[in-house]
Fold:
Amino acid sequence: MKATATLFFLLMLAPWVRAEYRLWTDKAGKTIEAEHVITLDTKVVLRMQDGTELRILLDSLCEADRREAILLRPPRVEIIVSAKVDRANEAVGLGRRDLAQAQTESIAATVTIKKASPAPYDAPLASEIVLLGLTGKTEQHVILERLATNFTFEVAGRSEASYATQPVSLRRLEAGRQVGIEYDGYLCIVRDRKGDILEMKCSKALFREHAETILAAKRGTLFDSGFLPVDRQAPAAKESRPRFQLFPGRKR
Structure:
């Protein structure tokens, strides 16, 4: 009975929760009270309280409401990431006659964000890219670099924005076993003014699967194979030794 009453209350409350009515004003100063339904390329669809839907030209609205209608429809975007990786190999002496192969890497990523929808959108957007590496000894992932930036698509016709990371230098030694870090890929996102993710691009499906964890981590954070953070300062577990008596059966 209690569950039925709760469900009835939620059903009665739902229309009031969904509806967000406000006053919309046109250039002539006329106003209507309606809720926003969708913003199209050149029109906005508003729904009045009696259920009537109106299609209104964006250019017929006052500037403040025209801008609000546009901002209620974030643009479709395309993310293009170009990760330039320069590698070099050299022989390194380990003492006596032993040699090892050392590989150095320099990684720099350039991000280009293109607006894929024709409607103008001049509100600020945010983008962030995270570069990840893989350790050779323990095969843990590490945050190599992260860079965030804000940008806008201007009404004047600008349809793309770009930014680039500083080069990240890595060194990896191969001498029987691999020691060091190598570049493993990237994760890049674009957020709208509310912080919601509009688009995401990853070099690996694994990074998309753990995107929330990666985006919340700081530079230098280590992850295990399940993308759980690894505590660098955690002491190594000591091997427990069994206790024993020197002379079993002898009473002191």
The first helix runs from residue 2 to 18.
